[in-house]
Design a protein that fits this description.
This protein is α+β, with helices and mostly antiparallel strands. It has one domain. The strands form two sheets. A three-stranded antiparallel beta sheet has the order 1-2-5. A two-stranded antiparallel sheet has the order 3-4.
Length: 127
């Protein structure tokens, strides 16, 4: 890895540790399907509680940030490129379920990372 790549990774790793506000419009689970050559984004609704934690709108239970969560996606989007997925997720739904600009920016970055992983054969793990 070049010195530039190492420095960029350090910056990104540090920024990934910052606290973030959760979007009351919901959250997305992003993954790739190499066989189908597609990027997927599953949208789940949530309610943000008084502590700033995402909760299941039906049960009121806090949604775990890690591990398996047994919920049904509100919508499943798929696309061949990051740009196509951005159009489907951000531009086409009326109204757009994303209510925060930082969340939209995050999704754009993650869609690009997923596209790169799909092309390069590298593993994709959502940040």
């Amino acid at each position: 890895m070049s010195e530039l790549a190492t420095n960029i990774k350090k910056i990104d790793d540090q920024l990934s540790k910052r606290p973030i506000a959760l979007d009351p419009g919901g959250y997305y689970i992003i993954y790739i399907d190499r066989e189908a050559e597609l990027i997927y984004a599953k949208h789940y609704t949530n309610i943000i509680n008084e502590k700033g934690l995402a909760t299941d709108p039906e049960s009121g239970e806090v949604i775990a940030a890690r591990g398996k969560v047994n919920r049904v996606a509100e919508t499943v989007y798929s696309a061949r490129t990051a740009k196509e997925l951005c159009v489907k997720v951000i531009e086409e739904p009326k109204p757009c379920p994303i209510t925060m600009l930082d969340h939209a920016a995050y999704l754009g970055r993650e869609f690009m990372r997923a596209e790169y992983a799909l092309i390069s054969g590298e593993e994709y793990i959502q940040d």
